[in-house]
Each structure stands twice: as C-alpha cells, then as structure tokens.
Design a protein that fits this description.
The structure is a single chain. By secondary structure, this protein is an all-alpha fold. The protein folds into two domains: about 35 residues, no CATH class; about 110 residues. About 75% of the residues lie in helices and about 0% in strands. The protein has seven helices and no strands. The longest helix is centred in the middle third of the chain and has 27 residues. The two termini are about 30 Å apart. About 15% of the residues are buried.
C-alpha cells in the first residue's frame, strides 16, 4: 500500500479542500495511514514517550478528588492503559515484512530502543512472555539498524 504523505499532512495545514470528493480522498488517505506500519511504530513510540505525562495528569486528577484512593493503584492502572495500548500498535509489526522493517528504520533511534526495553520490562513483570518475545525481536532489529 502506498501512503501519500502530502495528502496526510494536507489535512493539518488549515487549508480546506474545495470539493467534497477531494475531502473524501483526504479522509481516505488518513484512514489508510492508520493501517500503515509507520503509524503503528509512531503510535507505540509516542505512547511510551508520553506515558509519564499521562500518569502525572491522572494522578493530579485523582488526588484532587474528595474520595480517598490508593494513588499507587491509580498509577498502576495508568501504566496498564499506556503499555497495553502501545502493545496494540507494536504487535502489528512483523519484522519479516519489508515495509514494517522500513517503518522501524524510519523511527530507529536510541529513544525507540529504550521504549522497547521499557515495554519488555513492563510485560516481564506480568509474565507476558509472548509479548516479550515479539518485542525482543524488534529490539534486536533496532540494534542492527542503529549499528
């Protein structure tokens, strides 16, 4: 599947397409992009990168409530949401497929490698070894790409 980045980013530049068919084309381009490995890897990276901010906001929200809550449990729930949603995206990656390899290459940096390690550590804690095995394959490919 070919992704037209100009169409995708045209959705965000503030210019309205002139015709309804053009609007439909742009919407289709965005929907197609959500089914592309670049989107999946990017979402994984973004979710893990932003998880501390997410947890801090959740903690602030619940700490301001009148009811007593175990803030540790709230923090754990926040991490559960973030890591499992990140897993949803990265689980779609098949390192045997060239477009998936290209997506990993596109985002390959020390941050992504670290985020994969964070995810492995998180899922090891819950003995979700199938997820860890998938992530280790990605980690190994990233190490190769970065060397």
């Amino acid at each position: 599947m070919r992704v037209d980045a100009d169409k995708i980013f045209g959705l965000f530049n503030g210019e309205e397409p002139e015709s309804l068919p053009e609007k439909a084309k742009m919407a289709d381009a965005l929907l197609d992009f959500k089914e592309h490995p670049l989107f999946w890897v990017g979402m994984f990276k973004k979710l893990i990168h932003n998880h501390k901010t997410f947890n801090r906001k959740v903690m602030n929200f619940f700490s301001q409530m009148d009811e007593e809550l175990d803030l540790y449990d709230v923090e754990q729930a926040g991490e559960f949401v973030v890591y499992n949603r990140a897993w949803f995206w990265i689980s779609k990656i098949d390192i045997q497929v060239s477009t998936h390899q290209d997506a990993l290459l596109h985002y390959a940096d020390e941050y992504l490698l670290t985020y994969v390690k964070f995810a492995i550590s998180y899922f090891e804690e819950f003995e979700e070894y199938e997820k860890c095995a998938h992530l280790v394959k990605i980690q190994n490919l990233l190490k190769e790409l970065l060397n």
